[in-house]
Automatic annotation (TrEMBL):
Protein name: MsrB domain-containing protein
Organism: Eleginops maclovinus
Catalytic activity: L-methionyl-[protein] + [thioredoxin]-disulfide + H2O = L-methionyl-(R)-S-oxide-[protein] + [thioredoxin]-dithiol; [thioredoxin]-disulfide + L-methionine + H2O = L-methionine (R)-S-oxide + [thioredoxin]-dithiol
Any one GO molecular-function label of the UniProt entry: peptide-methionine (R)-S-oxide reductase activity
Highest taxon of source: Eukaryota
Record-level GO cellular component terms: cytoskeleton; nucleus
Its job: Methionine-sulfoxide reductase that specifically reduces methionine (R)-sulfoxide back to methionine. While in many cases, methionine oxidation is the result of random oxidation following oxidative stress, methionine oxidation is also a post-translational modification that takes place on specific residue. Acts as a regulator of actin assembly by reducing methionine (R)-sulfoxide mediated by MICALs (MICAL1, MICAL2 or MICAL3) on actin, thereby promoting filament repolymerization. Plays a role in innate immunity by reducing oxidized actin, leading to actin repolymerization in macrophages.
Length: 92
């Protein structure tokens, strides 16, 4: 099991072993390693959540949503619309 955290040095950015990424505060399932892909950002990048209720999203702009844990509200980062590995796919 992996945990999504950032303390100035993201240890899971280049981690591609099979598993599940969960909230660092409440262990709520967020992302599967199957949806993870290599990206130039300093954080791990995913194309999809495990379940629809894994995260809560709040629109920040036409191309970005603030993403929170769907259970405890812990801040997870952003979803960038149409910035995934393929056309029409978002990046978390």
């Amino acid at each position: 099991m992996s945990f999504c955290k950032f303390f100035g040095g993201e240890v899971y950015k280049d981690h591609f072993k099979p598993g599940m990424y969960v909230c660092s505060q409440c262990n709520h399932p967020l992302f599967s390693s199957r949806s993870k892909f290599a990206h130039s950002s300093p954080w791990p990048a995913f194309t999809d959540t495990i379940r629809e209720d894994s995260v809560t999203k709040m629109m920040e702009s036409l191309t970005a949503f603030k993403v929170l844990c769907g259970k405890c509200g812990n801040g997870l980062g952003h979803e960038f619309v149409n910035d995934g590995p393929e056309e029409g796919v978002s990046r978390f």
